[in-house]
# Entry
Amino acid sequence: MSLLHNSMFYDILFPEDEGEGLGTDGQLLLQKVLRFHIGPEVLFRGKTFVIFDFETTGLDSMRDRIIEIGALKFVDGKKVGEFSTLVKPDIPLPETASKITGITADMLEGQPSIEDVLPSFLQFFDKAILVAHNAEFDMAFLKAACQRMGYQVEWPCFCTLKLARQLLPQLESKNLDALAQHFGLSFAARHRSIGDCEVTGSVLQALLQKEGQSLQQWRDIETFKVS
# Structure
């Protein structure tokens, strides 16, 4: 929390109003609201984007946990920052998750907890538009992790999967592998967070330069937003 308290992030995004919620132990707690708003007429292409991806122990955002965070920050299409860390979960790592991601329990030993790294990640995407492929999945895990720490997240995030479904209707599959093949992209490491972020960023750039040329204002991409 000290990282947040000593930054502009804390002053702007923690308003005085607080909501009530239940912690993981059933105790009543106060929730701070992390909020960022973009007006519909804003030209989004010049804004800061943070493309992020989580690897997790499973698919259930309430029961499963984040085991890796990867994020890339872009300003005017140029990469200006990177956030990458493994996260030791407070539940056992299933074998299925290891097979998919290549992340083992041994790799997670000695890694920071989500409580240790989440404040730094929140600060990393301060005042930026979040982007993810199949963003509903990643946003669900972000909100669940925040909720367990007493934060409520209200943040603009749009989904490259939704964007691809709209702009590439002829493409049978719009998963990241299919889009990478369509645009001739390669993965540094599939199902590792930074590798997936790199490809998502290239997919986004390709979509906006070609099929999505007419998308200029935030109102133009609000339909691809994940709340």
Q: What stands out?
A: The beta strands are 19-22, 28-35, 48-56, 66-75, 78-86, 129-132, 151-154, 157-159. The first strand starts at residue 19 and ends at 22. The CA atoms of residues 62 and 144 lie 6 Å apart. Residues 193-209 form the longest helix (17 residues).
